[in-house]
Design brief:
This protein is mainly alpha-helical and about 120 residues long. The protein has 2 domains: about 60 residues, Helicase, Ruva Protein, domain 3 (Orthogonal Bundle); about 40 residues, Ribosomal protein S13/S18, C-terminal domain (30s ribosomal protein s13, domain 2), CATH 4.10.910. The protein contains 6 helices and 2 strands, in the order E-E-H-H-H-H-H-H. Helix 2 crosses helix 3 and helix 4 packs across helix 5. It starts with a strand and ends in a 14-residue tail after the last helix.
């Protein structure tokens, strides 16, 4: 069982795809890691030798991933909020940060729709 950065990699996946289960590693970085570690990217994770696993572990340690990356991202968001930059203000208000429209969409960030009370119609 391949275990890198305390993440169990799925046995049945190819090495390139399995590495993407680690936070901070996408497809292109996974391919780069396989090249640096001299591991065939099409090899299933269950078929990796102990030497190949060790070389993958060693190469992945050179990159910022998992806990350190999550901490860095949270610290940069907190910093933006403290200096009251535009992005920080959007984070504080729970609105989309990257320029998306909020008139009709953005329910993921804004939450469920709020009911607006309207006037009762006076009957005749």
């Amino acid at each position: 069982m391949a275990r890198i950065k305390n993440i169990e990699l799925p046995k049945e996946k190819r090495t390139v795809i399995g590495l993407t289960y680690i936070y901070g590693i996408g497809r292109s970085l996974a391919e780069t890691i396989c090249k640096e570690a001299k591991v065939n990217p099409n090899t299933k994770i269950s078929d990796l030798t102990l030497d190949e696993e060790a070389s993958l572990r060693k190469v992945v340690d050179n990159y910022t991933t998992e806990g350190n990356l999550r901490r860095d991202v949270q610290m940069s968001i907190k910093n933006k909020m403290e200096i009251n930059s535009y992005e920080g203000v959007r984070h504080k208000r729970g609105l989309p940060v990257r320029g998306q429209s909020t008139r009709s969409n953005a329910r993921t960030r804004k939450g469920r729709g709020k009911v607006v009370a309207n006037k009762k119609k006076v009957g005749k």
